[in-house]
Amino acid sequence: MSETTNATNAQNGAVKNGAAQKSDVVIDVKNLRKSFGGNEVLKGINCQVHAGEVISIIGPSGAGKSTFLRCLNGLDTPSSGSIVVLGDDIADPKTNIDKTREHIGMVFQHFNLFPNMTVAENITLAPTLIKKVPADKARARALELLRMVGLEEKADANPESLSGGQKQRVAIARSLAMDPQIMLFDEATSALDPEMVGDVLQVIRDLADKGMTMLLVTHEMAFAREVSTRVIFTDAGVIEEEGTPEQVFGNPQSPRLRSFLSKVL
Ligand SMILES: Nc1ncnc2c1ncn2[C@@H]1O[C@H](COP(=O)(O)OP(=O)(O)OP(=O)(O)O)[C@@H](O)[C@H]1O
Ligand SMILES: [Mg+2]
């Protein structure tokens, strides 16, 4: 299939419902701008994401990384431009963003598990409520996902009894319970004690191996280099440079990227 045909597929929704092929464009961002008051935070972002890509977004604090991810699932409303996700332009106020959001999971720095529910209940809530999955099926799927993140024995635990890393793995399982086609991670490991980071990164690595399309904002440069198919360096609201991990980390071109890497590597 040609690039154009695939882009058209993204436009007309042909890649929805699990049908995305490796070369399909699942996210197509054109000239995305976002201002908060007089502060323009995203200054014309263009970005196409193909099914199965694992994209790390790196860059200094305030570059607009979180704002970009938040725009991708409708948590922030773009000031202008278009964001076509699985065929729907979510920058268009007429689009039912809740429908599109079912296909995009997002995991934040802070886990926000519901403290008054067990781990399993946290995971089954959205599928039973939104997708009307029967309780027994939702529970079975929750146990399967907990096994995947190494926490099957915690199904009936209270989230408060878990460590930070365990909570974050539950948060990932909770996102996956909606069977998203795309996962967004915004510094999923930054709030964790160092010894917890590895287990969470392993879960993300496993997802990458399974072909999940992912965008990761991360400060874990070694991990970004290892797991990504593409790395995007953002600075001051623009994509300053992008390429394979080898290109971006091994042969950076932009002085701003070189300066950034000299500080973080
Ligand atoms: N809701 C908001 N209202 C006003 N300004 C905002 C809002 N959200 C973000 N900003 C501003 O937008 C800019 C980009 O913020 P953003 O959180 O996207 O950066 P970031 O690259 O994720 O930074 P960090 O690495 O520190 O998380 C910052 O100057 C921030 O103050
Ligand atoms: Mg951020």
Characterize the structure shown.
Its EC number is 7.4.2.1. The chain is α/β, with parallel strands linked by helices and 265 residues long. Helix content is 38%, strand content 24%. It contains ten helices and ten strands. The protein has helices spanning 3-12, 65-72, 97-101, 119-129, 135-148, 164-176, 194-209, 221-227, 245-250, 255-264, and strands at residues 25-36, 39-50, 54-58, 80-85, 88-89, 104-107, 182-186, 213-217, 230-235, 238-243. It has a six-stranded mixed β-sheet with strand order 6-7-8-3-9-10, with helices on both faces. Strands 2-1-4-5 form a four-stranded antiparallel β-sheet. Helix 4 packs across helix 5. The longest helix is centred in the last third of the chain and has 16 residues, at 194-209.
Record the SSE blueprint:
Elements: H1 3-12, E1 25-36, E2 39-50, E3 54-58, H2 65-72, E4 80-85, E5 88-89, H3 97-101, E6 104-107, H4 119-129, H5 135-148, H6 164-176, E7 182-186, H7 194-209, E8 213-217, H8 221-227, E9 230-235, E10 238-243, H9 245-250, H10 255-264
Parallel strand pairs: 3-8, 3-9, 6-7, 7-8
Antiparallel strand pairs: 1-2, 1-4, 4-5, 9-10
Helix pairs in contact: 4-5, 4-6, 5-6, 6-7
Bound molecules: adenosine-5'-triphosphate and magnesium ion (MG).
Residues 65-66, 186 line the site of magnesium ion (MG).
